[in-house]
Amino acid sequence: MCFLSGLFVWPSLVRKGAAAFATDRLLRLGIPFVLGVYLLMPLAYYPVYAAGAADPTSAAFWSHWTALPFWPCGPLWFLAFILALNLATAALYRLAPARSQTLLSRLSSFAGNHPVRFVLGLMAVSALVYFPMAAQFPPWRWVSFGPFSLQVSFSLQYVVYFLAGLAVGANGIARGFFATDTLLARHWARWLAGVLAAFMVWIIPAAILTKGGGDGLLILPALRETGLVLFAACAAFGSMATSLRFVTQPRPVLKNLADNAYGIYLFHYFFVIWAQYALLTAPLPAVAKGLIVFVVTLTASWAISGAINSLPLGARLMRGAQRTAAAATKPGAYVESSGAQARARD
Fold first, then answer.
1. Do residues 86 and 9 lie in contact, with contact meaning Cβ atoms separated by under 8 Å?
2. Domain contains 39
3. Considering the entire predicted model, what is its pTM?
4. Is residue 40 part of a domain?
């Protein structure tokens, strides 16, 4: 997600300018973050409290909620994190537009001409920033300040992937690294095999260490962290390679899903928790419960997102519809291969 978030930033920044780009990001990321954290998250988290509370009333819940030393934000932490990276990129462009454009163009060309070396370099850099953090902070350690939260051990790795996406997207995504005839698309099966292999390298040592085995064996933590770095890269590029190979033609359902993806992300957590709460005592196997929760969550959050996108203000915040339409009329506007990509870029 960090890689994809960086992918469309630079063309949009160059087209709009630093000030307009920053304002747009504050509107499209900042407003949903504030509304989601302060209005949606308390409603989403209530079942977590009610499941084990002696007094499950809303008044008692609110009393406990406001007594917390921070304001839980759930998965919406990602919006604040990406907003900070977007604003930092806008500041960089404002301070040194020519130098930053030249550097990113070179990196983008390198990624397109040497995709294997680019991915290997990305893995190496992500390992260099992740290993020291993983040695100091366990993966479940979060730092929270008010409504903002950050998973410490992964934070620098997230930044590296965002910067990699920024570089790849600098010259456009319809060619180069993401062209449908490149190594990335042609070797999709190898990428998926790499996903499985890297997952096993990661999960087996992690399971042994979690269960208390392997004490004193330094090789197990090293394998676990190495496997995680490899799995992150293989999973990211494997999914993209498979999409480039098989999802090359526009389809109405996928287009609608793309249009509502942001809204689905914003609302899904509410339905995930409430659906699990509703099924808590149901005499069903875990697989059946998981399938029901998935279907309910996707259907409900997709429907709500579609309803909001039908409103002018909702379409502006969720899809940037007005600004995208205006950009399409400007001479020399950055052109992508489909309307869905243009909306995603903004």
1. yes
2. no
3. 0.84
4. no
